[in-house]
Design goal:
Number of strands: 10
Number of domains: 2
Largest sheet: 6 strands, antiparallel
Helix content: 25-40%
Strand content: 25-35%
Length: 165
Amino acid sequence: MVEASVVGIRTSIMGKDMQTQRFVLSLMLVAGAALSMSCAASQDSGEAEPKLVATYDELVAALRDNGSAVESSELISQPFFEPRGQVIKVDGYDVQVFVYTSEEDASSVAKTIGSDGSSVGTTMISWVEAPHFFKSGNLIVLYVGEVDDMVEALQAVLGSQIAGR
């Protein structure tokens, strides 16, 4: 008699030839592996992957869709970014959005940002609060502040920050 237990399935094979026993055991192993993968997949799919934005309009729409109040504010120039930026107020906090002509241009500039956000290219920056840099599509987004909910709101639509503290 051969007994087998796979992921809570237990069976006894009695009076069968060795080839049948091996076949049944193989089936049980395959079934157990399939069940295990199915459980892992259902745990992974519990949270949907965020759809990241690629443009200014998508950013504003996604933030609003996620429940944030978003208002367009003034234009801003930073010495370390070539295009002028647009300040948006997200739930009352200033967020600077820099729109590049292409995703490649934004990626090139993003590579020059120091990992802690204290430098961009050759410019050294002394921030009044923690900087949080994000890059998605042709956008580089900068939030300077300590409000965790604001960082989480940006991460939900832009992905993980690329630099900062």
